[in-house]
Amino acid sequence: MEFRVKLTDEAEDDDAVFGNPGTASLKRRATLLRYEEIHESRDKELTQDGEKLVGFKPLRKTGVIYVTEQAVKKGFSPSDPSWANFGQGAPETGDISGAPSRPKLVDIPPEFEEYAPVSGTADLRVAIANYYNEWFRQGQATLYTADNVCVVPGGRAGLTRIMSCIENAMVGYFLPDYTAYSEALGLFQSIVPVPIPQSSKFGMEKQMPANYLDELVSRMDLGAILMSNPCNPTGAVLRGRDLAAYVEIARRWGCAMVMDEFYSHYLYLDDDELKDSGDPPMVSAAEFVQDVNSDPVLLVNGLTKGWRLPGWRLCWVVGPKKHIDLISAAGSYLDGGANAPFQHAALPLLQHDYVRQDVLSLQAHFRAKRDYMLGELKKFRIHPRKCPEATFYLWLDLSELPDPINDGLEFCHELLEENAIVINGIWFDLSPRGLRRHAAYGPCANFIRLSYGPPMEELKVGVKAIERVCRKHGVETAM
């Protein structure tokens, strides 16, 4: 018997309707109806101006796109200083204190007016391989070469290439995780997406212990696992022995471990964990790969986040040569490859001294912003359940707030009225192909993701907006 939740304007008991700490307010019902309309659009005919678009299917928008579109309807513009965008998953660009100088002009020799190879230029692939060898594979028996690298025009392009190469396999993914995985996992019919909820026993703010994952992989015969590490949205990070254990699972069971490592530079450790060398701490599964050409570990990263250059759309996939050959071939019909001029311009950015100085400045700058936001939000009883060690996101628990703003959907819409954008938690409760129909009532309903990627002045504008929403609902400021 199919279970469906009936949403009406009549007063009903919370538990009977939601089975969740969510509210029974009429405003929440309207918000939930909007959510259902978005995610059930694939069940309706795709129309434009009343005419059916023959042969096309409806596609869902990611949470960032949907919420930003709602903000634009209310007057949002990225150049408007009265707005704060806590929603966009991008770091501030431009100069920050202590960082090396960044390219301001890109020289384009005639040879770079031609197409670049689909797998990327040889020089850049060598530079990327050297980056991993220098930072993560000192003293290892095998090292990455250009054959282990494929350059791609953005992280999602890399993930799409990888997914297109997987044949007739169950692919595990964690809940919550990066919103774009939902469409990447649902696009190819040869993939069976398998959700792996982070157990309430350990909390969403910690990655699943390796022994639990090992049992899941073996029992379900998973062919691959897709995950972000550090994790978007929670800021949790696998490192050291825990990360080594995940790589061992991939090696033992032949399960491809697809690691989205875009936030690998955003790591904030205690002083007693820092390296004696003064080098910045970073994280990558590359450190625990035994054989670069046999361990089924694929690393996806790029200039987008770690180098704070999202507009360059220059990223890469690193892994065994046999996998990289397939991923490169997929690019010939999916995206055609990354642009040539920026591949040439990226070479100095991967040099060891540049990376060292850039990451040290980045970590100091973003740690200060994280600590500022945690301190301000604590005044309004808004906080993560665990202080994030990585990324530039806060996975915030609203359960201590009063009805109705203890719900992520409602908080998000109320904050839009105050010129600020956040992403409600249900967007990270991934549902490839719309198979999971009741994410709106799941464990992410009382959470929001807040990005402290924007500049400090914009963060301060956003804090004032959050304060107005909280005061409107009677939340007293705690000192």
Can you describe this structure in just a few lines?
Helix content is 34%, strand content 12%.
Number of strands: 14
Oligomer: single chain
**Tell me, what's the shape?**
globular
Instruction: Give the termini separation.
Output: 51 Å
The main β sheet shows up as:
7 strands, mixed
What proportion of the residues is helical, as a percent range? 25-40%
Gyration radius over CA: 22 Å
Major sheet: arrangement of strands: 4-10-9-8-7-5-6
- CATH topology-level fold name of the largest domain: Aspartate Aminotransferase, domain 2
How many domains? The number is 2
Give your account of this protein's structure:
With 479 residues, the chain is of the alpha/beta class. The chain has 2 domains: 17-89 and 398-472, no CATH class; 115-354, 3-Layer(aba) Sandwich (Aspartate Aminotransferase, domain 2), CATH 3.40.640.10. The chain is built from 14 helices and 14 strands. The chain has helices spanning 14-18, 26-39, 63-73, 122-136, 155-165, 181-186, 210-220, 240-253, 303-306, 321-334, 340-345, 352-378, 408-416, 456-472; strands spanning 47-48, 51-52, 84-85, 149-152, 169-175, 191-197, 224-228, 256-260, 297-302, 315-318, 393-397, 420-421, 423-424, 447-451. The strands form 4 sheets. The protein has a 7-stranded mixed beta sheet, with helices on both faces. Strand 5 (169-175), helix 6 and strand 6 form a beta-alpha-beta unit. The radius of gyration is 22 Å and the shape is globular. The model is unreliable at 1-24 (pLDDT under 50).
